[in-house]
């Protein structure tokens, strides 16, 4: 019953999202049709579940409670598979939680930039910013040329003895225009700089000579080599409270104790070992220092504290820095990826990474989906009087709406769950972390129920009415075989009963066995095509990284190394 109630809550949340979101994909998720002339197909699978074909899916893991539930469940399974595989091989895994100090006036996008790094601008934004710089440079050059002409004219026209004074007066007269043009150029350059990705505190953890090694200074391995770091899986979670504002934080499962061979796309794991206590201690001390200093450099007020006495803070009194938990057994990992419909208890890393949609925030904090659910309650007339069955969550309607829209803007273009590059291939885990990969997961989940054995078609008019009346979940559940009657006509009758509530029962057509089979075949073909396209995209990205871009980066590093050696040679006494 709890699972059914949660599912109903998610669908209600998506209907609220249709009304308030600024994201076009979310507005159409589950209600806009791919082809209005074809309509939609509600099919019953061999396992008795229902599949809805022909509607748009947004795949927005941050925003859509319905899509997020499926995607995060699949991500949790991936994480569990990876961690279990690593522990089976003899490796070691740590759950690392990274937090920052925050206050009620801090903007979420600024905090996310500090932790995750800033986002790159879109191609259109970058082109526009470059055009602004070019125009500002041209305008400045025009002012410089005009000033030079005015000064030369003053020198020519002024009588002997006052030429210098006349030239100075011409310069002074043009100074305002010159200062304005220079200011416009600086503004345009700043706009262009803002479109480039800037590192956050997270990126600082895995850069620098102390971490990666200094071959020229007698430390070729660095901390990374001494602990056998092979990569990590990172997830970012967000909560918010009335008193202390936004609290974004990062959970990462870090895999250590590995020996590898090769570079980048050719990198392979050749063995495992148990990192020494001294090496592990040095790693943890280094990350704590880098994390604190990186946040302090970005904004001193975000410098993590060593302890915390706030009852509503998710840090649980441990302070806003880094917490390390070692996963001791395969069972530790297996327990975490299970589909457990309850709040996390801090001992389940895979669930803690991937299943943010199941979480209820601590104390006076709420999760973003709880914001969405409260907005739905308050706008549908649910009383907010503290009685049983009243509106959930905290804050006024205006406060929740403002926080939700800020959350939408701050998470746009960011990845909720991300793997270190090449970690998947080393562990034999297929797939990727992009939005396209999330959409593939949604399609793959549809196909997992097995072959379709019954189904109905609903016209564009019918499904539009269903969505408008909020009957999308009821219609889907009507197509399931929970009552044990799998006869196609019975499925059609159940769906008609639901659509009758929207006065569109006549838009339902029971499909023949051949039509249902064709729909299932088409679904599998579409999924196979998307997976092939995704694999080709990842190959292109790997080839791009292993050719020009990497070569240039190595060339620069080799040149700097040679220059350092030359300077030491010159400075060495004869």
Quick rundown:
The chain has 574 residues and is an alpha+beta fold.
Describe this structure in words.
The structure is a single chain. With 574 residues, this protein is of the alpha+beta class. It folds into three domains: 2-62 and 439-549, no CATH class; 65-119 and 200-359 and 414-429, no CATH class; 123-194. It has 20 helices and twelve strands. The protein has helices at 2-20, 24-28, 65-88, 108-116, 123-157, 163-194, 201-205, 209-212, 222-227, 277-298, 330-337, 349-354, 368-379, 397-411, 423-427, 435-447, 460-468, 472-478, 488-500, 513-571; strands at residues 40-45, 50-53, 92-98, 231-241, 245-256, 258-261, 268-272, 322-327, 365-366, 417-419, 452-458, 508-510. Strands 3, 4, 5, 8, 9 and 10 form a six-stranded antiparallel beta sheet that branches. The longest helix is centred in the last third of the chain and has 59 residues, at 513-571.
SSE inventory with pairings:
Blueprint: H1 2-20, H2 24-28, E1 40-45, E2 50-53, H3 65-88, E3 92-98, H4 108-116, H5 123-157, H6 163-194, H7 201-205, H8 209-212, H9 222-227, E4 231-241, E5 245-256, E6 258-261, E7 268-272, H10 277-298, E8 322-327, H11 330-337, H12 349-354, E9 365-366, H13 368-379, H14 397-411, E10 417-419, H15 423-427, H16 435-447, E11 452-458, H17 460-468, H18 472-478, H19 488-500, E12 508-510, H20 513-571
Antiparallel strand pairs: 1-2, 1-11, 3-5, 3-8, 4-5, 4-9, 4-10, 6-7, 11-12
Helix pairs in contact: 1-13, 3-11, 3-16, 4-14, 5-6, 13-14, 16-20, 18-19
* Total separate domains: 3
Give the termini separation. 84 Å
Strand count, sense and barrel status of the largest sheet are: 6 strands, antiparallel
> What is the 3D shape?
globular
Indicate the structural class. alpha+beta
- Proportion of residues in helical segments: 40-55%
Please indicate the percent range of residues in DSSP E strands (runs of 2 or more): 5-15%
Question: Which parts are unreliable, with pLDDT below 50 for 5 consecutive residues or more?
Answer: 309-319, 337-352, 547-574
> What number is the mean pLDDT?
82
For the CA atoms, what is the radius of gyration?
29 Å
Number of helices: 20
Beta-strand segment tally: 12
